[in-house]
Hints:
Two copies of one chain form a homodimer. Chain A is mainly beta and 159 residues long. Chain A contains no helices and ten strands. Chain A has one domain (24-148): YaeB-like (Elongation Factor Tu (Ef-tu), domain 3, Beta Barrel). A six-stranded antiparallel barrel of chain A has the order 3-4-9-8-5-10. A three-stranded antiparallel β-sheet of chain A has the order 1-6-7, with no helix packed on it.
Amino acid sequence: xxxxxxxxxxxxxxxxxxxxxxxxxxxxxxxxxxxxxxxxxxxxxxxxxxxxxxxxxxxxxxxxxxxxxxxxxxxxxxxxxxxxxxxxxxxxxxxxxxxxxxxxxxxxxxxxxxxxxxxxxxxxxxxxxxxxxxxxxxxxxxxxxxxxxxxxxxxxxxx
Amino acid sequence: xxxxxxxxxxxxxxxxxxxxxxxxxxxxxxxxxxxxxxxxxxxxxxxxxxxxxxxxxxxxxxxxxxxxxxxxxxxxxxxxxxxxxxxxxxxxxxxxxxxxxxxxxxxxxxxxxxxxxxxxxxxxxxxxxxxxxxxxxxxxxxxxxxxxxxxxxxxxxxx
Lengths: 159, 159
């Protein structure tokens, strides 16, 4: 599980077991061109390659109302990340920082968030640009971008 | 668990049991002025009231490097949300839409995301503005805002 992160100088871990406080359910799978971590771009770009969000039943029924061109927030589970690091020494940043001061995939709850543009929908598949994650990454959630919504029409906390 | 959402016209649910595919661990608790859903603002504002992110050990050791004035992305668990809705009819939006076309808290993985401004750190507590969630909401993650980071210094996918 921790294959993607060997320890670096000054890094610290907790040896306390992770409590299981809530359960996630995978709603589908992300297909990208990148099958190895070293191939992934460091950050997604809206002019990057097309990627596919494959939504599984019954959640394909929850896609109604999404429109091509929309910016979406995508949440996914960084399933190959270690979860025990408190201090990290990224290779490209000077020094050592707390996990919460970095966007590193290694974190107690390894949830990635990206903003993507919806190119089109093909049935239960959303074709998007803007991702940077590995092929096969489990999908957790899709939401309209928060900035696109005024308090009057966001649907946020509305129900 | 579903007390906060009675069914509205044209809404649809799935009766398929949620698979438990991965476990979340709560890293702390969010303290806000709002103890009832109807008191919460519809969307957080950076000039809203101060709220407190109380980080629990061992994760307080992962806060090093955060700086006052920074914009942070906060992820939290909307613990009172129902998780079975596929179509929703929000009270303030015309018609019915798929769950993924709304930022409603009712979703298969009820993870809220907000951008907040860090006012100051008080030991294991981050004082922030910009939240809209209930007092007592479980905290999942804190990351630097993605926009604040160029590909060269983000730490994203760097390890």
